[in-house]
Batch of 2 targets.
Target 1
Amino acid sequence: MNIVLFGPPGAGKGTQAKLICEKYFLNHLSTGDLLRKESSKETSLGMQIKKTINDGKLVSNETTIELIKQFINENKNNKKGFLFDGFPRNKKQAELLDHLMESINEKILCVILLNVNEDVLKERIMNRSATEGRSDDNLETLSKRLHTYSSETEPLIEYYSSQNLVRKVHGTGEISDINQGISSYIEASLNA
Ligand code: UDP
Ligand code: MG
C-alpha cells in the first residue's frame, strides 16, 4: 500500500511518517530528506538545491522525480509499500507519481492531509530551528515556504479530492492521538 502524507511546512509530516512507517511496515520516502542529502554534496547540483531550499522554492521537477525514481527502484521489493512524505508538491509531480505507480502496478491508497493553522506552524518551525539547525527554518524562508505551499501545493487537494482520496486529520494535540486519527483512515481505506 502507498500513502501520501500532505500538509504545510511544520504540520508534523516527518514525525507522523516515522510512526506510520513502523506501524504498517512502509518505506519512508521524504523528498525533503533526499534533497537535503543531495544539497550537502559539493557539486553544482548540490549547491543549486541548497539555494532553492533556502529560498523556500521547489526544486525542479526533473531533479526531484529522478531522486524519487531511484528511491522507488532501490526499495520496491522492500516492505509493503511507500509513504510519500512531502511529495508531490505540484500538479506535474502528482501526475508523474500517478504514472510511476501505474508502471509498477501500484496505486495511492489515500492522501492524509494534516491540518494546522499558520500561527502554530510558525511556532513549531521556530522551535525546531533551535534544535535541528535547518538553514530554511527561519521566519523569512518560512514565509516563502508557506507561500509556495499555498500557491503550488495546496491546489493538489482538489486534484486528489476529485479521486476521492483525501482524508483530513487535525494536526494539533497529542502525537499519539494524531497518529490514531491517521491510522483509522488508513484502515478504513484498506477495508473499503
Ligand atoms: N523540497 C522540494 N521538493 C520536495 C520536497 C522538498 O523542492 O518534494 C524542498 C523545498 O524547498 C522545501 C524544502 O525542500 O521547502 C524542505 O522540504 P521538507 O519537506 O523537508 O520540509 P517541510 O516543508 O515539510 O517542512
Ligand atoms: Mg519534513
Target 2
Amino acid sequence: MDNVGDKKTLRPSWLIGLIFLFCFNPSQALGKEVAIGVFAYQGEHASTSDWTPLISYLNQALPEHRFRLENHDAASLHQAIAGERIDLVITNPGYYIAMEAAFGLSRIATLESSGVSAAKALGSAVLVRSDRTDLQELSDLAGQRLAAVAPDAFGGYLLAAQEMLRNGVDPETDLKEIRFLGLPMDQIVEAVQQGRVDAGIVRACVPEQMVREKRLSSADFRVLSLRQEDPFPCALSTPLYPNWPLAVTRQTDPVLAKQVAHALLSMPQTADGMGWTVPADYQPVHDLYRALRVGPYAYLREITPEGLARRFWPWLLGALLALVAWIIHTVRVEHLVLRRTAQLRDSLSAREQAETRMRDSQEQMEHLSRLSVLGELSGNLAHELNQPLTTIGTYARTVLRRQDSGRLTSEAISEACTQIVNEAERAGGIVQRIRHFARKRSAVREPVDLVLLAQEARHLVVGMLAHPPEIHIDNQLPASCRVLADGPQIQQVLLNLLKNAVDAGRNLGPDRQGIRVMVEAVDNWVQLHVVDQGCGLEPPQLAHLFEPFFTTKPDGLGLGLPICKTIIEAHGGRLWAQPNAAGPGMCFSFSLPCHDLPT
Ligand code: ADP
C-alpha cells in the first residue's frame, strides 16, 4: 500500500479484538453482504493481512451488514467495478481518479497516518548510489538508466516521472533506458546497488524502512533533488499527494455509504496511528495525470479528432464562438452594405435625375440667352442684310435698264449675275451663321481653336452692327496648345463678352470704342482676355457682377455673365473680371485647361 509507515505493524491486541468480534458476532451471519474491493498491489497475502482488521471493524460497527474483502490487481478491480460486483473500493489515488472518471467512483474517506496530513501522505524518492557524485538533481538523469516499478505505478513511477518532467527531463525520451522491475521495490534498490541502473524510483519511506530492517545502509544511498516536507518523516524527491481513498460506486446504497463513512470516521486510530478521515482533495492527482497524459488523460496523446477535441475543447469552443461572432458580424456587415448600397443607388439616381434636369434647364437657358443676344443684335441684322439685297437690286435694275436701251451685252449680264450671286451668298452666309448660332444642341467636348472662335465671334458681332468698333485679336498662343471644349458654347461666351464690351463703349467717343482680345498660355492654362475702354464698373457693382439678374442696362436680363461663368466652370476653367490695367474700361478673362495636342 502506498502509505507512510507499515500497516503490517498494526497492534496485535487491536487486531485480535477485531477478529474476535468478527468471529463471534451473531448477527453477521444474517447481514447483507458488502464486498470491499481492494487494490492488492503487493499480492493477496499482504493485502489480506493489511485490510482484515478493517473488515472486522466494519462488521463489528455495522452488524446488519456482512463485509467481505476482495483482493484485486488493477485489471480485475476495473472489471469488478464495471461488472458492479463490489460495493466499496479501496485503491491508490491514481487508480481512484481513473475509475472516478470511468465509473463515477466517489470517495467517502481518506486513509490517515499519524502525524501526517491525509492530503500530503504519498511521495517518491529517486535513489542513486552515494558514490555517483555526478548525479545530484533530477535534471542530471538525462541519458541515464532508470529503474521503476511499472508504467502505471503511482509512487513507483508516476510521481517521480512528473517531477523529472518539471526538471526538464522527459522520462520517455531523455533517458538512456528505463526498466520496469515490478514489486517488491527491493528489486529496484538492489538494481541501483549493483550498478545495473544509475537511479531507481521507489515510494517514499521504502529506503528508511529497509534501513530500519538493516537491509540497507544509509551511507550507501542518496536521494536526488532531496526535499523535506514537515512533518513527513522520510526523504523525498517529489511533492506529497493525498493518501488512499475508500470510495463507493454508483450502485452503492446511499444509506450504506453513509453508515460506512460514519463508521470509518469514528474508527479509533490503530496503535501506529492509522485511521480514516474526511475525503482529501484529489485535484493534485488529476493535475499529475493530466500533465503526464496517462490514466483518464491518456486521450490527450491521441491525435484523433475526438482526442484533439477533448484536449483542446476550450480552444475549439472559443474558436467556434469567434466563428459564430464573425459570421454574425459578416452577415450584419453584408446586410448594412446592401442597405447602404441601395440607399446610395437611390441617392445616385436621384442625383442623376437632378443633374439631368439641371442640364436640361441649363441648355434651355443657354438657348434663351443665345436668342436674347440675337434679339439685341437683330436691329442691326436688317441693316446687314440690306446691303447685299440693295446691291442685288441695283445690279438687277442695271440689267433691265440696259435691256430697255438695247445696250445689254453678254459681258454686262455676266458681271451683273456674278455680283448678284456673290451678294446672295453673303446674305445667305449671314442667315446661316445666325441659324447655326441659335440652334438648340447638346454639349460636346472636342479640340477647338480659341483664336478661330474669337475671329468667328468678331465676324458675327461686326456683321450685325451698323457701326462696329475695331476688335483686335492678339494671338500669343503656342501652336500646339488646344483646348477640349464645346465650340458653340465657348463662342457664346465670347459673343457675350464682346457684346458687353461694345455696350460699355456705346455712348463714348471713338477713342474709347476699341476692343482687344488677347489669347495666351499661362502654365497649363489657356487664358483669353477681352479688354475694352468703356464705362467700367464701380467696386460695389463688381461684387455683384456674376450674380443672376444683375444688370445696369434698361433692357438687360442680367443672365449673360452667370451663364458664361457656368459654361466656363463646366469646362474646368474660371471666369473673372477686373478693371482694365492699361486705362479705362474692364478686362474680362477666362481660363481653360490646355491640352498639348498634335497639330
Ligand atoms: P446684361 O448684359 O443683360 O445686363 P450680363 O450678365 O451680360 O447681363 O451683364 C451684367 C452687367 O454687367 C451689365 O448690365 C453691365 O452693367 C455689367 N457689365 C458687363 N460687361 C461689362 C463691361 N465690359 N463693362 C462694364 N460693365 C459691364
